[in-house]
Design a protein that fits this description.
This protein is of the alpha/beta class. Helix content is about 35%, strand content about 20%. The longest helix has 28 residues.
């Protein structure tokens, strides 16, 4: 269960999300420094208050769950390393207590990362819809690009074997990495591994969520960024801007004919040997429309809401079943219609808690970083289309009663 942030920490989290949308690295860094500082102070206060109650349930309800034995040992080692005279060397040799320096021994436990991913999906509906897959220590992911089972009758010829082989491709999980910085004072380290775990989990959750959601929506596909749903994965890659952005389709109505035409653009996979393959029955079940919160309230919600016969409003009525989710990373009048099951968002191994070369260790503080490997990309270019909602009609449903006669003025 994510910890509820109070006051300044909650506001700092909102400012961090806004900073991720900009192009100013300095503003993003400042927002993150402010965020982790406010989170550290907020969580320290909440933890001390919960400990004063001497009630285990209060700690759990506040979001400070018991750590596993492996997690406890890991954060005990981290605290000891951060308190040491040479934290850089101590963090580099964190292991299982035997001095092992194998990289896997320095990784945060997979159970801890699983809880981070659960928190991410709880707070971010778009990522929950797609699903964040923890692939552990796997560095490459093999996936089937074909939507139908490949099978043939008769002799297996080389051309058929080649076609079957071409149906699979690998995705590098280590291609991209998310880094976040954390700072704690010496007295906060004295709060112990349980507080340290909660603090790291909270900061890592928010940082990863912002990074992953931005990547899913608008990632450039270069420089370690995932490939966003708004990108043309078949286009030429620009060394600065990455894969080209898709041209938005202007939408004026969500009536059945108009909406059906939009969904039809997702009905086939990309052409293979010049021919696209129709998606199998049920493959459109994950149809999702994502837009920013303001556009949802002023455009999408009015266009998909009706008053039923019982006098109650019914929301999110699309001609074809569609889930509407919101993301702050989309611009005004911009939306994406996509198939949630055809975006692979993979989180792999991590490098654990490391010494921060970017920040100096201060007299009463310890600054460290966490590096998490991840990658994401659509399986097909037809996994998503970008929509322009500038001229979307706020209502499309018309109720007609059999036997009624329109007046001259109504006709």
């Amino acid at each position: 269960m994510p910890i509820n942030l109070n006051g300044k920490a909650s506001e700092a989290a909102k400012q961090l999300a806004q900073a991720f949308q900009g192009e100013d690295p300095a503003a993003l860094e400042a927002a993150f420094v402010s965020f982790q500082k406010e989170v550290a102070e907020d969580l320290a206060q909440q933890f001390r208050e919960a400990m004063e109650s001497h009630d285990e349930q209060v700690l759990i309800q506040r979001g400070f769950p018991q750590l596993t034995k492996q997690e406890t040992r890991y954060f005990e080692n981290v605290i000891a390393a951060l308190k040491s005279p040479n934290p850089k060397q101590a963090l580099a040799t964190i292991g299982d207590g035997t001095g092992a320096t194998d990289v896997k021994d320095r990784m945060m436990p997979e159970t801890f990362i699983d809880e981070v991913l659960k928190d991410i999906e709880t707070a971010h509906p778009l990522l929950a819809k797609i699903g964040v897959r923890n692939v552990g220590y796997v560095t490459t992911w093999l996936r089937n690009k074909h939507t139908r089972q490949l099978a043939v009758w008769g002799a297996v010829e080389s051309t058929i074997t080649k076609e079957i082989t071409s149906a699979f491709e690998t995705v590098s999980v280590n291609q991209g990495k998310l880094s976040c910085f954390c700072a704690v004072s010496q007295d906060m380290l004295n709060l112990g591994p349980r507080w340290m775990g909660a603090y790291t989990r909270t900061v890592l959750t928010e940082a990863m969520a912002c990074g992953l959601e931005y990547g899913v929506v608008k990632g450039k596909g270069i420089g370690g960024e995932p490939t966003g749903l708004n990108r043309n994965i078949l286009g030429a890659i620009d060394p600065t801007n990455g894969k080209p952005a898709k041209t938005a389709v202007a939408v004026t109505s969500f009536d059945p004919a108009s909406y059906g035409a939009l969904v039809a653009q997702l009905a086939k996979t990309d052409p293979i040997n010049g021919v696209g393959t129709e998606r199998v029955k049920g493959s459109l079940d994950g149809l999702t429309l994502v837009c920013n919160p303001i556009d949802y309230l002023t455009k999408v919600m009015p266009a998909t809401t009706v008053l039923n016969a019982n006098g109650a409003y019914v929301n999110n009525l699309f001609p074809i079943p569609t889930d509407a989710v919101q993301s702050e990373f989309l611009d005004a009048n911009e939306a994406i219609l996509f198939l949630a099951g055809e975006y692979d968002l993979l989180v792999g191994g991590n490098r654990g808690i490391e010494y921060s070369d970017e920040y100096q260790f201060l007299e009463d503080n310890r600054v460290f970083k966490v590096v998490q490997y991840a990658n994401g990309e659509p399986r097909w270019n037809t996994t998503a289309i970008v929509l322009d909602l500038s001229n979307l009609d706020p209502a499309y449903l018309n109720v007609k009663v059999a036997g009624t006669v329109k007046t001259k003025e109504q006709a």
